[in-house]
Amino acid sequence: MLKGLVISARKHLDLGTKNDEIMDITQEALSIKAYLTLRVLFNRWSLRSNNKVTEEALVIIGHLFFLIPPSKLKNQVNRLTRWLMTLMSAKVAPFYISQCIFQLIDALALSGCGGINLESQLGNIIGMLFKQLSETVEDSNHHSVQNHSLALKAFYILTKLYNDRVVTLIRENVESKDPAKIVSTIQIFTDVLQKVPQTEQLKNEVMHSVIIMIQEDLKPVQRALLNFIEMLIQHDYLAPPQGSIIINYVIKLSESDCSNEEDIQLTCSKILQMVTLPKLITLVCQPRNTLAFVPLSKMATKMALRARSLGQVPYLSSFHLRPTQFISPQKLLTHLVMFSLKPYREGEFGVSSLRLLYALHPITSLHPVINSNVGQLWMTEIPQMLQMLDDHTEKSLNQEEWEGRLLQAFLYKFFGFTLRTSRNIKMVQMMLSAILQTVHEELQEREELIREEPLNSISSSIRQRAMNFITNFRKLHPLTEVEERTELLQTCFQSVLCLPSTEDLQKEASSSQEAQATEDLLMETLQSLLRLMETLIVEMPSQIQYCLEHLNIWLNSQNDNERERAMWCAARILGFTAKWNNFGVEIKFSRLGCLVRLLAMRCQDPVDNICFLSSQAVYNLYRILLLQKQMQRKKQGLWEEEGKSEVYSANVFYNNTFEIAKAFAEYFTEMQLTHLVLTAMEGLTDSKATVSLAAAQLMSAVMKERGRDMIKIEEIVEGIVGRLNLQLEPNTQEETMRAMCLLAGNNTHRVVPMLLNKTLPWDRTNLALWKAFGTRRETTISVLQLLIGILEKLHSREESREMAFQPVAVTCALCEMLSGSLCQEAVQELYPRLLLAILHHLYWVIEQNVPQKMVVYNREEGPGHKSKPFDPTSCALEVVKLVFMAAAYEGVVVYANQHHCWDLLSSPKFYYIGIMDLTSGIVKNCEPAILHRILNLIRNILYSSNYHRRILARTFYAQLLWHRSVAQTVGQDFLGNLIKWTNEPNIIMKEVGLRGISNLALHPGQERDLVKISATSALGHMLHRVHKFKPGAITRREIYSFLVPLLLSIQDNNTEVVKACGGALTEWTKVIGWSSLTQTFQHTTLSDHIQVLEETCKYLVGTKKIQLVGEFLSQSFDFLTSPQSFLREAAINFIGLTIKRLTMKRIHEDDVELLQNAIGSLRNDPVESIQSLVTTTLKNLDEYLNPESISATRMSQLSNNIFKVTGMKTSERKKRLFKTVKQERDDDDNQKKNIWNWLRGPLNSLGNWHNRRVKTTPLIIGNSDK
């Protein structure tokens, strides 16, 4: 029934029904009921197991999403996500979960914004959707198909809402080793990318993911990946530089000897046919594509013939104008003819070459035919050669006859016709170059000789002679193609550097002479390799970095001898270049960062000689850069930097990664810096501890010198975090943390938000990073300033009720940063501002609807102990404590513990009371300078539009006045502000203002009478408030203590003071219930104060509460020592009028003696009238004590003795006035108790002011009963 009702309600809304009468309910009421229904389903139904009830509930809840107001739905996202994750663990049918997730996202998207909670839960939601996609799709099962479809739709909506973030989260699955996840990722990309805008950033992200999948090349992924690539090509994804990587991958899968399934090869063929013909033909002729030559040439032939059939020239010689993109027509002709020399290679090698040549006719023409002889040659010779191959087999074909026919009858004749008839000088030059290149085929044969030499021995000098031949030949005809140079270097490096070590070669020798000869031959071979490298450098000086980069694989080899030889080559070739001293042509090290990293990492190699060679190589590279810089300065007419070359040497760089980074820092571009860090990052996981440490040190040093110039910060951060998760070697881990700390210090606004956005609670790696941020003063200050700014910005205005997780994450970060011992100086610098920001955040947190048992932070408690979980509130409280500890104010924490501040601060109702008590602890334990810094911060927000800020600021303000130096601050209208607050309608503001006035009253100043009047009036207001709460016994006893100071203050000569005291006493009688005195106090004047005093004493004694009378008398004793004479006189009057009403003969002798001593203490008072009053009062006391004769007294004593001897009791026992009374129990509930405890502070302070007992002693604030 509920399901049908919800669906019907949705249909009405979907149809646009606006008439509430038709629906019999308003849309607003419908929304509220839908929300309540959702709450009932959660709170009353157990929906955590796999059953039909749960499935139906999922369907109902999915429809409810569209009826609930978006603001309320956003508040439920966190709870819904956790519930759906629980249901997945319970194995609920995937369809129902996918449908519910889709409906939730769809409903949120309709509001135009998914909300903060949805963004914070993206990781969890995408993780669930990936699991749904990994479910096997059964075509016969409708729910199975729908599950897959709904998950993809959800991804599409999420991508529209959070494009970059979702793409990043999807990409994370690409780097997993799980084929199922990768295939799901491809499906998502395929479905989503066709529906979202194709931005450059999106293309780069997707291409990066594709390249990762290509590098992994997992067999189960190939089919899906090829289909995805086909779609990418349709959206012009081959244009970026990475496009060639994709094409090479497709070519690899299409190779003729490939074992791939037929459908994969067909897909590859389909993809390659989407490439332009010039590009495809260029790929055909590349040496690395030899194995794919036959299928590629067939495709190219097919495309060329199709173009010809459409009347198009398939390949124009104008393409030679773009030699960097496409192969020139002349080189293409030569290549295809050379490929045909061995026609039966790979079965159809020669046939495919000739057919492609035939299809491209006329290959060198700007017009279909430029010379009839060339056209006839092309059209007659190629078909005849094809027929010749058809008529023979590899065994029956005469190779010499075939080569004569191919080269002499076709190639040379073709060139002859073209050269003779062409008038284009440039074309003639290109033809001659192609012929020359063909003649130099012997060079390739030399390279083949080097390749064929065994790698496990060096028994002949073939390698050496071959390299010498190539070196000499290069002087006559330099290599201009980078690919040719690359292939040559790789061949030589592979052949020489991979040879066994000298020791192993000598062991294989049969004699010492042979061993020595082998060693000499190895050295000569290395020298030949060096000469070849020098020759190549002289040809193209700018290519030195590429030459060195080809050594990378051997510089990182696990074999010591390979690393040593490679570094020897690097040091020598850099030394050769540095001594060259001819920098007319600038040598640009476009990848200087990678090169420095490559060499610097080996400066701490386990093999000492490699360290030495590395330092030599690094120094030579530095010399090259320095010489180039000096040359540039000279050209610009600038002074030469003196002494720069003497600063560094190879010895300085030896085993010193920090000095290397410092020396090269100024030469790096931003991109080079970034590449250095990204490549150094790879070395963090090196199996050799010294190398991994060197990588970390290099990162640290570079970030220290040039950290602000880094780019790709996000990639660097993710890379470092990923490697820290791998549990690096301890020293490397520590240095990497230091590098991250330096990076964060220099790029705070980019690094910190990334880490804050990690899902809570954080793992150990993320927690360790935040702790590291508290170890370096500059970083700590920078990060703390940003975190404070986040808290202040997010809480600067009245927030929505939706829980924002970034400020919560800030407190988690602070928990780690402040828990270390190295952040004290930074915290002290930012102490007041940081404290106020956290306390304001705490107020915000406790008013949020935080789910129960929400864990946002876990603290490790040491070995053998479980981690301690924190929710948002306890986490914020922990930060408050840590701020005090880090600022070296442990006493504040101790004070707060004693006064139960943390409990008060955790309650929205008693938060301001907790702030009041906490401020008391600050006043007691912090220097006056700190108090004034706090005052300067809060006075700017005393009248903030934000209620929370006002409460926090005013409470601090009021209680800071407890300290005399604050209260006496010049230029502050403290009293004016406090009086304003007492007049505000808000109860809390009234009480805060009254507390401030009571604190201000503690300190004498120029406005003493005004403060006295304000303080007394404040007491009256406070008593009026207390009366409404119906106080219990403990609070009433506290209130009793105000009678004496107020009663005595009536005798002040200031009529305004008398009036204020009368008003306060009037309220006092209402609280205590002495209604008979209400009228008396209400109309008190200065002239009738003795009469008021007498009536009060009469009523007091008439209450028959002897102990209460004793307490009042004891309280009055304190006024006998007052510096103000009218208070001393008033105290004597009070005592005299009270004992007058008592039957003193029934008072215990000890109490009488105490009274006599107290009154007698003023016999020598400097005021004569007081001396006279003391004499009279003592005389009256004697009369009250001795109304009968002395003899009667003695008889009474004798009678008492008789009673004592006989054991009989006297008829009347004397009473004690001054006796300690056991405290009564207050039966009020805890909330009222807290209120009385707080109110007692202001009441006591006002009383103490009247008593003049409090001078510089601190207030007692908090719950003294606990």
Automatic annotation (TrEMBL):
<dbReference type="Pfam" id="PF23227">
    <property type="entry name" value="HEAT_MROH2B_C"/>
</dbReference>
<protein>
    <recommendedName>
        <fullName>Maestro heat like repeat family member 1</fullName>
    </recommendedName>
</protein>
<dbReference type="InterPro" id="IPR055406">
    <property type="entry name" value="HEAT_Maestro"/>
</dbReference>
<dbReference type="InterPro" id="IPR048465">
    <property type="entry name" value="Maestro-like_HEAT"/>
</dbReference>
<feature type="domain" description="Maestro-like HEAT-repeats">
    <location>
        <begin position="562"/>
        <end position="784"/>
    </location>
</feature>
<dbReference type="Pfam" id="PF21047">
    <property type="entry name" value="HEAT_Maestro"/>
</dbReference>
<dbReference type="Pfam" id="PF23210">
    <property type="entry name" value="HEAT_Maestro_2"/>
</dbReference>
<feature type="domain" description="MROH2B-like HEAT-repeats">
    <location>
        <begin position="69"/>
        <end position="408"/>
    </location>
</feature>
<feature type="domain" description="MROH2B-like HEAT-repeats">
    <location>
        <begin position="448"/>
        <end position="538"/>
    </location>
</feature>
<dbReference type="InterPro" id="IPR011989">
    <property type="entry name" value="ARM-like"/>
</dbReference>
<dbReference type="InterPro" id="IPR055408">
    <property type="entry name" value="HEAT_MROH2B-like"/>
</dbReference>
<dbReference type="InterPro" id="IPR016024">
    <property type="entry name" value="ARM-type_fold"/>
</dbReference>
<keyword id="KW-0677">Repeat</keyword>
<dbReference type="InterPro" id="IPR045206">
    <property type="entry name" value="Maestro_heat-like_prot"/>
</dbReference>
<feature type="domain" description="Maestro/Maestro-like HEAT-repeats">
    <location>
        <begin position="1006"/>
        <end position="1181"/>
    </location>
</feature>
